[in-house]
Amino acid sequence: MEIAVRPLVLKDWPTVSKIYAEGITTGLATFETEVPSWEDWTIKYIDTCRLVAEIDNQVVGFAVLTSVSNRKVYRGIAEVSVYIAEAHRNKTIGKTLLIALINKSESQGFWTLQAGIFSENKASIHLFENCGFRVVGIREKIGKLNNTWFDNHFLERRSKLKKMKNILVLCTGNSCRSQMAHGYLNKLVNDKANIYSAGIETHGINPGAASIMKEDGIDISNHTSNNVTEYADIDFDFIITVCDHANENCPYIPSKNALRLHHNFFDPSKVIGTDEEKHAAFLKARNEINDYVEDFVKTIF
Predict the structure, then answer these.
(1) What is the pLDDT of residues 232-282, one digit of tens each?
(2) Catalytic-residue membership of 243
(3) Mean pLDDT score, 177-200
(4) Residue 167's beta-bridge partner residues?
(5) Model pTM greater than 0.70?
(6) Which long-range contacts (CB under 8 A, 24 or more apart) does 79-82 make?
(7) Does the annotation count 250 as an active-site position?
């Protein structure tokens, strides 16, 4: 029996919804009592981590992740759901799906997976334990189903992959220099670090910065201008200030182990002149920042 795992797509919904309904019928898979619409279902589950298992081109199970919080500090934590068609249980499909979902989640930067499983569902608890999850506690009478209170075993799995580094680039308004550095860091570190940029104020994305970066094949037009206080919950490994004003007036950032670096880059937004002179100023700043980021990445990674 060959089990194939692939991404879950819209055309799978009729079969996936049927499998979900079979899970509801067991009374031990979920506190939900009705199958939602595709529109409601797709909002709930993370679209980059949805998998189905197939046997002979027939969908026989699915595995998905749900975010546990909208807070950025918890962005790498998700809750796991695995469902197998009634006719295909006890065939190692669940283990195949769960292992595939673990690998997929790690490729997407998730560092902790968790699951709440009905305490009576011994088979599912055993499955998760066999895939590296550990029971961290029992939530007594956490929910009611058909007028009966149920306990849940709460399990979690911490990724074994090396922790990704968190890098913050800080400027006055998170408009120009910090945004260019953010763009180059995103390009050069790939999936080795989480990149953030912020300001002690927020001035929006400078059009000149977006334009000069686009000339080098990097699109920062979709970046946001963020205040550094928004990232108070993140433990940074590196904090790079790119202007003297931010370095001298930065509020307290509670990342006690962060390596703090500073370089006062030329500010092209202050240049007044012809379009050619403004372009030259942004090009000068971009090239300075590119060189600095390249050296930084070579040193760290």
Answers:
(1) 888 898 999 999 988 888 777 888 778 999 999 999 999 999 999 999 999
(2) yes
(3) 92
(4) 195, 238
(5) no
(6) 79/113, 79/114, 79/115, 79/116, 80/113, 80/114, 80/115, 80/128, 81/30, 81/45, 81/115, 82/124, 82/127
(7) yes
Which residue has tokens 């100023």? 281
Which one is catalytic: 49, 131, 176, 243? 243
**89: Cβ contacts below 8 Å, ≥ 6 apart:** none
Element (H, E) at 47: none
Nearest to 28 by CA among 98, 84, 99, 91: 84
Please identify which of the residues 49, 131, 176, 250 carries the catalytic annotation: 250
Q: What is the residue whose two structure tokens read 């860091």?
A: 185
- Is pLDDT at 164 greater than 80 in this prediction? no
**Active-site annotation holds for 171:** yes
Tokens found for residue 215: 């000339």
Only one residue has tokens 């699109």, namely 219
Encoding tokens for residue 195? 């990149």
